[in-house]
Amino acid sequence: MGKTTSLAAVRNEIGKARGLPNEHYTDPATFKEEAEAVLFANWAGIGFGKDVPDNGDVRPVEFLGVPLLVMRNHDGDIGVFQNTCRHRGMILVSEPKNLRNTVRCPYHSWCYSLEGELKATPHVGGPGHNTHELIQPAELGLIRIRSHVWRDVIFVNISGDAQEFEECHADLLQRWQEFEQPLYHGGVASSFRLDVKTNWKLAVENYCESYHLPWVHPGLNSYSKLEDHYDIQQPLQYSGQGTYVYRQLTGEYEQTLADFGDLSEQWNTGAEYIALYPNVLLGVHRDHSFAIILEPLDCVNTVEHIELYYATDADADDNRSVLRETNARLWKTVFEEDIDVVEGMQKGRKGILFDGGRFSPAMDGPTHNFHQWVATCLESSRAQRSSLDA
Amino acid sequence: MLPCNESSLLSLNESSVLPCSEPAVLPRNEPAELPRNEPAELPRNEKDSTLHQRMLQAHAAQDLNSLIALYSTAGKRMETRGDIDAACFYLTHAYVYALELDAPELTELQTRLAAYGRIHTP
Ligand code: FES
Ligand SMILES: [Fe+2]
Question: Does residue A119 have its Cβ closer than 6 Å to ligand 1?
């Protein structure tokens, strides 16, 4: 790794702090450092349960170059494994498919169960001999990656040593407890991706603040004024914004989207938008929710995977399909409006004299919260490394 | 991983080799008739080369059900000829495809390979 960046200014109190130095947005070596210290060391989103809907569905996913395999077993549970054969390291599955019971390696046909156990090692002891005393199946199952599914997002902790998801995010789980109910994906129109030329962190930063709303989303702001928003900040966990004036879409005959059941009054006109660090952006409303996974391709390229969910099954609730489509279109417009600014902030960081910038103590709390978290992750990983070196 | 490679890998004695592709001239010591306990789905007197041809077709079509049947047949044929290594070689292929399909043949194939000590007992 190259030189390490200075994070002291980031750790200052908000009025005096500066943002992360340019290298965190422009330098491939720093990107690599962050991949390990920030994205692998925590619970990062890598995919959605709705993309492996049936038991036996398997789906290869690459996350920061690491080949992963998402599998839904015959109990309906999702597991994530390294998509690499324990024999000679062949990629096991290269396209999504449905399997009966067995993942067969395309190279020498070693077979694994949907739980990752090594089930067969054909000819491993010579032609027609499928065992060898030195090849013990119990030691050679697929490498399991810690995973947890919440709100249909598949989270993984690649380093394997983060706190349990439920402990780590107990606060948010509690905050959104009322929304622990079945989610139904809205179908094709409710799924879109945006390819953005920006460092993934800028998408987080832009998402968690409301300061830009009147300037970047004037349409949104006509019914959602700046003063109707409040900041959400949980140190070292998440940040975002809430609104007091969420208005439901209404259709031609005054129909609305179906509500989630038994929500308390605050959600009649309330909605919240939270960046769950590192890379998952969530939104909840009385009648729909969404999840965005930021897939960092490299230092300056990010894919935003956006999925919208509802309280009722789209197939069983056909007469609201127009509303769902309108809703998806509205959100797509909003997210597209943000592209210019996240790409612009990326370009701005080529200004070699930029010093990380300042934060408005009144408006940028959620953004500063995120920077502090990133700095904390980096510092603790640097401390670990130097104690290893010592 | 075509059957022709597999048979050369085996270095079986000449009489039991399933040839790589339909040969212009049939192998000299190809048995004229096959034993009586062949499975119903294949003609009793089908030549090894025909069986092999069918395997190639099934591989090309990725027809796992046929692969299970054909490799089982090849296995049984070798068993009858007393070549247990070759038999287990083919049974192993049938077994792997049966695993993949979770096919009804799986249990029997497992039992047979286990009886020869060729897999970890299920
Ligand atoms: S690399 Fe997978 S079986 Fe050999
Ligand atoms: Fe925005």
Answer: no
